[in-house]
Amino acid sequence: MSYTVIYGIKLNGDVVFVSETDNAFRGAMHVWMQLCDKYNISGSLFEGFDELWKIADKGILDQFENIVLKSTFDNVVVMKDNIPMLLDAFREYDKMFSGSTLHEQAEIIEKDILINEDMIGVCWNQTSVNGNPWTDGHDEDDEEIPYNTSNGAKHWFLTASEGDC
């Protein structure tokens, strides 16, 4: 079965595995389907969700929905200062649209990243079927080289203010 992977960002910028939640369809796919239904937007596994994704940051979604939606996008990073905002959004979303893994993700992020002094942020792989997107290849022993947010350029920040971190 697929799963959603939660990664932490260490003080040195390296992205490392933290935990996972079962059934990736209860993660990003759940968010996308519920928001499409609420806002009467076309979207499905086979059609795609481009129409939904385009309304992020357009003032259409409630603030907590916008935060949750953007947290499902590829290569997004949330720095520690903004994790409380993220957790509030996850919990609000879970109250409105039960059945997702967001409450589980919130618990993991709070326990394993927010209070961990060696962690400075969080990022995800929304579905395990695509492999780990947070690597910079493999070393000579075929071990994954962790992506580093201090040196890498493929990530982006959930909020504009995080770019200063």
Largest sheet: 5 strands, mixed
Largest sheet, order of strands side by side? 2-1-4-3-7
DSSP summary, beta strand count: 7
Relative strand content: 15-25%
Put simply, the count of helices is 5
Instruction: Kindly state the percentage of residues in helix.
Output: 25-40%
Give the helices and strands as they follow along the chain.
Answer: EEHHHEHHEEEE
Low-confidence stretches: none
The overall average pLDDT, rounded, is 94
Give Rg in angstroms: 16 Å
- The number of domains: 1
Secondary-structure content class: alpha+beta
How does this structure look, described?
This protein has 165 residues and is of the alpha+beta class. The chain has one domain. Helices cover 31% and strands 22% of the residues. A hairpin with a 4-residue loop joins β1 and β2. The model has no long low-confidence stretch (mean pLDDT 94).
In brief:
With 165 residues, the protein is of the alpha+beta class. It has helices at residues 28-38, 50-53, 63-71, 83-96, 102-114; strands at 3-10, 15-22, 76-79, 119-125, 135-138, 144-146, 156-157. The chain has one domain.
Key descriptive features of the protein:
two-stranded antiparallel sheet; 22% strand; globular; 165 residues; alpha+beta; five-stranded mixed beta sheet
Compile the SSE list and pairings:
Elements: E1 3-10, E2 15-22, H1 28-38, H2 50-53, H3 63-71, E3 76-79, H4 83-96, H5 102-114, E4 119-125, E5 135-138, E6 144-146, E7 156-157
Helix pairs in contact: 3-4, 4-5
